[in-house]
């Protein structure tokens, strides 16, 4: 899928996803491998763990549900006019723990 950067940011910031004020998220990067494809292209491969939790209400004192994802992230970089730019991302979920499918109000994390 080719998704312009503006649409990617819009999707991530959606109130039904990471833009939800009741959701907290922390992403950890583990083992990393960098691959130089050419003088203008680099690919990075990362092990990842993403912890998420949804609070019960605006006081943010009680965690209603939590869910963590484990997988890999492949990031693509291209040199454009002499400047390295982020060119894309591919994620692969290997497994989720807890109630990941109930953290987000929208379609994220749901089996569709």
From TrEMBL:
SUPFAM superfamilies assigned: NTF2-like
Question: Keywords on this record?
Answer: Lyase
* GO MF term (any one): lyase activity
Please indicate which superkingdom the organism of origin belongs to: Eukaryota
Signal sequence bounds: none
Which InterPro entries would you find in this protein's record?
NTF2-like_dom_sf, Scytalone_dh
Which ranges carry the Scytalone dehydratase-like domain?
Answer: 2-107
Claim: 4Fe-4S is one of the keywords in the record: no
What does the sequence similarity comment in the record state about its family?
A: Belongs to the scytalone dehydratase family.
Entry protein name:
Scytalone dehydratase-like domain-containing protein
- Give the organism the record lists: Polytolypa hystricis (strain UAMH7299)
């Amino acid at each position: 899928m080719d998704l312009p950067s503006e649409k990617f940011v819009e999707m991530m910031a959606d109130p039904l996803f990471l833009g939800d004020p009741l959701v907290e998220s922390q992403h950890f990067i583990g083992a990393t491998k960098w691959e130089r494809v050419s003088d203008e292209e680099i690919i990075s491969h990362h092990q990842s763990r993403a912890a998420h939790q949804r609070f019960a209400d605006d006081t943010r004192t009680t965690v209603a549900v939590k869910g963590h994802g484990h997988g890999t992230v492949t990031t693509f970089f291209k040199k454009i006019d002499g400047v390295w730019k982020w060119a894309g991302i591919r994620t692969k979920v290997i497994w989720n723990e807890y109630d990941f499918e109930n953290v987000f109000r929208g379609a994220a994390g749901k089996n569709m």
